[in-house]
Amino acid sequence: xxxxxxxxxxxxxxxxxxxxxxxxxxxxxxxxxxxxxxxxxxxxxxxxxxxxxxxxxxxxxxxxxxxxxxxxxxxxxxxxxxxxxxxxxxxxxxxxxxxxxxxxxxxxxxxxxxxxxxxxxxxxxxxxxxxxxxxxxxxxxxxxxxxxxxxxxxxxxxxxxxxxxxxxxxxxxxxxxxxxxxxxxxxxxxxxxxxxxxxxxxxxxxxxxxxxxxxxxxxxxxxxxxxxxxxxxxxxxxxxxxxxxxxxxxxxxxxxxxxxxxxxxxxxxxxxxxxxxxxxxxxxxxxxxxxxxxxxxxxxxxxxxxxxxxxxxxxxxxxxxxxxxxxxxxxxxxxxxxxxxxxxxxxxxxxxxxxxxxxxxxxxxxxxxxxxxxxx
Length: 376
Description:
Number of strands: 9
Largest sheet: 8 strands, parallel, barrel
Mean pLDDT: 91
């Protein structure tokens, strides 16, 4: 058995299935903004969902990084996670993910070291290598148009970030005397006491590159099934085949992001999903905007090509009544063997999203407690 990393416990990665769920259930939040709503409304919804899912024994709550999209208010995951940390006490919080090429590794180490100090032992650091936006916005973020170089340098950036988190650059390295604070260096200062935890690293992906890298490094892996379903099983197979035991994990651990929406009525689920796919069509055709209402989607005339896209997209969105969604998630787990299901519920209304997680918790018999305030 491999030696455990001194600051990352395996139980900070592996969750425990609750109720009748086949694996731990978690949440991926894009902080979506619906037409007629504000970013403040969306953030209040995020707090309400985090409180609800914490009270119903969901394992973790991740926030994605996206930019220049009016309907997605999650451009600053670290800021949002600090806000969520102030309103929760148990649920793991993390990035799903921070796009590493957009940021200096030292900055990420400082941000997530600060989050770890705010919520010790429950912060995850999920990393992706895509920009999380279009090329022009990525160039503005990075102050460079050499975008390909950022993706190609991902393994090197990952190693640099890891060394900042662990404060273990070797002697002679130009960064040997640079320290990410809050971080391990505080424990070595006179009178210093430092938390034994540091955020576990996860690699995120929608293809084989990050799957293979995560496997070779013995890290946990998160796959974006919700927008790359055709690659899910090949990527998970590659991750498991590539896996080498590490100081963090003895065996592979993979979660998949799943788009799922449960409503009290099957027809209402179709209405909500129709609006979400119209939003995706607009995004894919260079017309990003706020998430439209179901009424707007019903009045919209889809072209034959848009209808084809909608049917293809919605085939991978698990939606319907709670029983139907539970059955769909169970089937997806059986097909993929995923160790965890991370659910993202996209809808115009925060109340609809909140109700979806409540229905799923009930369908799986998850523990019940006070749910806190309603969403906007």
